C-alpha cells in the first residue's frame, strides 16, 4: 500500500497493487476484479473506504482508493463493549451494502477497520485486490482466503468465502476488540494452530463482552447457515450499542430504547424527581389520559417550535406502536437525525413508582440523568399511566438530546395542564385497523400454544391492550403478541415468507440477540403514510423457550400468530 497524489484532482489517494496470479487465469481474474471494482466504486457508503479507479501499468494492476489517515481497530487495543458494538454495527452495515451488490470482502479483520473518530469506522482493504491471486498467501506453499485468526471454519477447511464467512470474520474482529485476542488465539500462537482451531470449530466464548457476548456467539456460529446476515448483524449490534440488550423488539431500535428507558427508571431508582418550573396551574381531578385507546400521543407535541434550533422537525404518528409518537430532528439536509419518542405506558406494566406530586399538579415529572446517547423524561399520571419522553441521538452524536427531550416535555406538560389528552381523529382510522382490536384476545383461540408454566388467563397487558405477554411462572418461557406499524412488510422484512390464517407473513428466526426467540410477523393491511410511502399494520408474535430448538420455537410462534389472527 502506498500513499500517492492524484495530480488531476489534487488529492491524496492510497494505491494498492493487485497480487498477480497464475498467467493462464489472469485475463479471467482481471475481468472479475474489474467487475467487482466497478460495483464497489458505485457504492457511496460512509463506512466504506471509497474505491476511485483501477489502473493498468503493463502487467500490473493498481487500485486507487480513498486515503484515510486513521488508526485501525488493531492499533487501538481493547475497547469497551458498547463502543465495539457501535463500530461493529457500522462495519456490518458496510458489509450488508457490499453483499447486496454481490461483493465479498474476504478479509475482515481489525487491521482493516479504520477508526476515523472515536465513534465512526470505515471498512477498507477489500479482497478484490487478491482476486488475481485467487487467495492470500500464508506461507510459501499454503494459501488461504483471509487472515489466520479471523477466517471462518468453512474457509479454514478449504471452502470458498461467502457472505456468511464475512460475517464470521466480523464476529472475530469484534471479539478481538473486546477480548484482546481472536476467538482462536492470539498472534503469538502459530498461524496454522489458529487455522486448525478454526477448522475444528474450537471457538472461545466471549467473557468480557457483557451485552455484546450473545451477539458475538451468533456471528461466530460454526455452521454458516445459522449465522445472521450482515444486515441482521447490523441490527443486533445497533441494539447493543444503544444499551437495550434485554428488550425484544427487533424491528425498531426506538422501541427497544423505550423499554430500556422504562427499566432504567426502576433500576436507577429514578435519579431525580424534578417538577418543571414556571407558573403552576390549579389542581385538577379526573383522568388526564381520558379514554386510553383513543388518546393521541402526537397531541402532546403541539408546542415543539423550540426544536427548530436543533434541526428540521418532522412529527411521525405511525413509526411503530399505536401507543407512541415520534419526533424526528434531522440535520445536514436530512442525512442524519435524532429521535424524540412520546410513548404511553401502563404503570402496571412498567412497574415505575409514583413519586409525590407537587401541590398544584396531579402528575409528577421525573428527569433521568442522561445516559450514553439517550435522555428520558417521565410524566407519571395519577390514573396509573406514564408518558415516557425519550430522546435518542441516533446518528447525531453531538446533539443536545436532553435539550430536545425538555422541549417535548414542556409541550406535553402544557397539554396536560389544560386537561385530558386530546383524542385521535377517529375519522382517519380504518374499521379493520388493529387499533380497534385486543392483543390479549389471542388467548381465547384454540390455536393458543400450550407451554408449561404459562397460564393464558394471567397475561401482562400493555397500554391499550395492543401488547400482551404471557410469562411462565417457573422459567424464562414467554409468549408475546404485539400490534404495530412498520415499513412495508413484504417489501422490507427479512425472513421466510409464508401464510398465516390466509394472511401474508414472515418468519424471522433471528428476531433478537436472544437466540431462544422466534418472531413471526403477519400482515393485517397496507396503507399509504403521510410521506406517501407504503406502510403495514402487523401482528407480531414471539415465542421464547431455551429448551426447544429454533424450529420448535418458530412452530410455537406460528401457532401464536394464528391464534392472534383468528381469536375466538
Automatic annotation (TrEMBL):
Q: Which InterPro entries match?
A: Kinase-like_dom_sf, Prot_kinase_dom, Ser/Thr_kinase_AS
Which keywords does UniProt give here? ATP-binding, Kinase, Membrane, Nucleotide-binding, Serine/threonine-protein kinase, Transferase, Transmembrane, Transmembrane helix
List membrane-spanning regions.
257-276
Record-listed E.C. numbers: 2.7.11.1
Is Kinase given among the entry's keywords? yes
Q: Which domain of life is it from?
A: Bacteria
Q: What GO annotations for molecular function exist for this entry?
A: ATP binding; protein serine/threonine kinase activity
Domain Protein kinase, chain residue ranges per copy: 1-237
One Pfam entry for this protein is Pkinase
Full protein name: non-specific serine/threonine protein kinase
Species of the source? Kutzneria albida DSM 43870
Amino acid at each position: 500500500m502506498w500513499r500517492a497524489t492524484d495530480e488531476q484532482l489534487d488529492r491524496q489517494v492510497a494505491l494498492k497493487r493487485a497480487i498477480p496470479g497464475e498467467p493462464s487465469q489472469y485475463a479471467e481474474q482481471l475481468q472479475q476484479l474489474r467487475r467487482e471494482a466497478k460495483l464497489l466504486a458505485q457504492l457511496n457508503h460512509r463506512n466504506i473506504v471509497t474505491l476511485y479507479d483501477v489502473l493498468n501499468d503493463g502487467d500490473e494492476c493498481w487500485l486507487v482508493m480513498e486515503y484515510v489517515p486513521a488508526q485501525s481497530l488493531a492499533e487501538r487495543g481493547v475497547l469497551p463493549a458498547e463502543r465495539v458494538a457501535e463500530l461493529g454495527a457500522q462495519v456490518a452495515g458496510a458489509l450488508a451494502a457490499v453483499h447486496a451488490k454481490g461483493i465479498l470482502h474476504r478479509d475482515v479483520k481489525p487491521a482493516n477497520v479504520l477508526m476515523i473518530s472515536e465513534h465512526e469506522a470505515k471498512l477498507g482493504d477489500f479482497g478484490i485486490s487478491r482476486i488475481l491471486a485467487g487467495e492470500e498467501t500464508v506461507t510459501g506453499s499454503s494459501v488461504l482466503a483471509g487472515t489466520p485468526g479471523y477466517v471462518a471454519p468453512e474457509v479454514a477447511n478449504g471452502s470458498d468465502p461467502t457472505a456468511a464467512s464475512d460475517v464470521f470474520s466480523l464476529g472475530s474482529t469484534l471479539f478481538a476488540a473486546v477480548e484482546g485476542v481472536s476467538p482462536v488465539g492470539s498472534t503469538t500462537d502459530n498461524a496454522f494452530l489458529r487455522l486448525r482451531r478454526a477448522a475444528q470449530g474450537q471457538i472461545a466464548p466471549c467473557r468480557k463482552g457483557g451485552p455484546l457476548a450473545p451477539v458475538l456467539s451468533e456471528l461466530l456460529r460454526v455452521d454458516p447457515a445459522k449465522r445472521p446476515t450482515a444486515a441482521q448483524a447490523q441490527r443486533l449490534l445497533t441494539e447493543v450499542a444503544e444499551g437495550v440488550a434485554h428488550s425484544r423488539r427487533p424491528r425498531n431500535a426506538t422501541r427497544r430504547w423505550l423499554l430500556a428507558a422504562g427499566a432504567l427508571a426502576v433500576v436507577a431508582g429514578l435519579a431525580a424527581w424534578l417538577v418543571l418550573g414556571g407558573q403552576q396551574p390549579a389542581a385538577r381531578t379526573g383522568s388526564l389520559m381520558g379514554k386510553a385507546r383513543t388518546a393521541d400521543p402526537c397531541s402532546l407535541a403541539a408546542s415543539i417550535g423550540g426544536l427548530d434550533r436543533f434541526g428540521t422537525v418532522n412529527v411521525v404518528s405511525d413509526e411503530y406502536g399505536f401507543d407512541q409518537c415520534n419526533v424526528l430532528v434531522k440535520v445536514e439536509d436530512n442525512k442524519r437525525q435524532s429521535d424524540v419518542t412520546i410513548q404511553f405506558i401502563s404503570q402496571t406494566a412498567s412497574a415505575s413508582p409514583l413519586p409525590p406530586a407537587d401541590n398544584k399538579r396531579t402528575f409528577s415529572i421525573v428527569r433521568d440523568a442522561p445516559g450514553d446517547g439517550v435522555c428520558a423524561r417521565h410524566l407519571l399520571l395519577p390514573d396509573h399511566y406514564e408518558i415516557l419522553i425519550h430522546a435518542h441521538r441516533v446518528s447525531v452524536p453531538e446533539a443536545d438530546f436532553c435539550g430536545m427531550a425538555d422541549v417535548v416535555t414542556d409541550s406535553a406538560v402544557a397539554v396536560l395542564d389544560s386537561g385530558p389528552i386530546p383524542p385521535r381523529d377517529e375519522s382517519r382510522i380504518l374499521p379493520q385497523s388493529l387499533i380497534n382490536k385486543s392483543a390479549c384476545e389471542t388467548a381465547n383461540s384454540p390455536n393458543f400454544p400450550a407451554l408449561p408454566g404459562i397460564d393464558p388467563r394471567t397475561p401482562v397487558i400493555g397500554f391499550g391492550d395492543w401488547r400482551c405477554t404471557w410469562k411462565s411462572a417457573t422459567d424464562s418461557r414467554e409468549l408475546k403478541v404485539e400490534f404495530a406499524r412498520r415499513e412495508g412488510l413484504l417489501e422490507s422484512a427479512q425472513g421466510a415468507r409464508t401464510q398465516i390464517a390466509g394472511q401474508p407473513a414472515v418468519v424471522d428466526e433471528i428476531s433478537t440477540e436472544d437466540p431462544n426467540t422466534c418472531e413471526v410477523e403477519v400482515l393485517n393491511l397496507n396503507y399509504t403514510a403521510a410521506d406517501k410511502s407504503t406502510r403495514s399494520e402487523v401482528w407480531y408474535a414471539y415465542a421464547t423457550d431455551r429448551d426447544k430448538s429454533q424450529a420448535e420455537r418458530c412452530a410455537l410462534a406460528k401457532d401464536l400468530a394464528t391464534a392472534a389472527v383468528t381469536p375466538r
